[in-house]
Predict the 3D structure of the following.
Amino acid sequence: EWPKTGLDHIDHNKCNNKIENLREVDQQTNSKNVGKQKRNTSGVVGVYWRKDAQKWSAKVRVNGVLISLGNFKDKDVAIQVRKQAEIEYGFHPNHGK
């Protein structure tokens, strides 16, 4: 059956169209399983260096709303806060990989 909403490639590989790698999801759910962009410098989606504040910033987008999780001196703390938010908001385990 052709999907009524959209398709998510669970492993982020658009060439891997095996049925076990595909799931029918809406755009909102699909956005909770995106890969890390090539220009990402922190290694984690939603964590970036704020030059003006000289701190690491963590943010997450949920239902189209960008939520600031805070600014941190320690990169590892920013990553930890972001990863906790991903769990809290139901992101896919492959998100950011």
